[in-house]
Amino acid sequence: MLILSSETHLLGNIQSLMLGGTETIAYTLLWLFLAMAIHPEIQQKVQEEVDSVLRKSKPQWTEHLKLPYTYAAILECMRWRTMAPNNALRW
């Protein structure tokens, strides 16, 4: 019975971690899409940068260093609409 209880707790923890992570990512992407819809000029710059760097090739992780504007746009959206608390109360 103890093993079953441990397995049940383990599965519950795995589900909590998976759901928590996917929900945060999903809402971050939704806010990013909204920000791009509200600011088409930024969306256009991001699209131009992505097109110029990738050029129909398979994306490689090292190419993210060549996308500073896109990276900045994503970070700004995450700053604008933070999905998780990023600081605690200070006494």
Automatic annotation (TrEMBL):
Annotated keywords: Iron, Membrane, Metal-binding, Monooxygenase, Oxidoreductase, Transmembrane, Transmembrane helix
Gene Ontology biological process terms from the UniProt entry: organic acid metabolic process; xenobiotic metabolic process
UniProt keyword rRNA processing, yes or no: no
MF GO annotations: heme binding; iron ion binding; oxidoreductase activity, acting on paired donors, with incorporation or reduction of molecular oxygen, reduced flavin or flavoprotein as one donor, and incorporation of one atom of oxygen
Keyword Membrane: yes
Protein name (database record): Cytochrome P450
Highest taxon of source: Eukaryota
UniProt similarity note: Belongs to the cytochrome P450 family.
Species per Swiss-Prot/TrEMBL record: Nephila pilipes
Residue intervals passing through the bilayer: 14-38
GO cellular component: cytoplasm
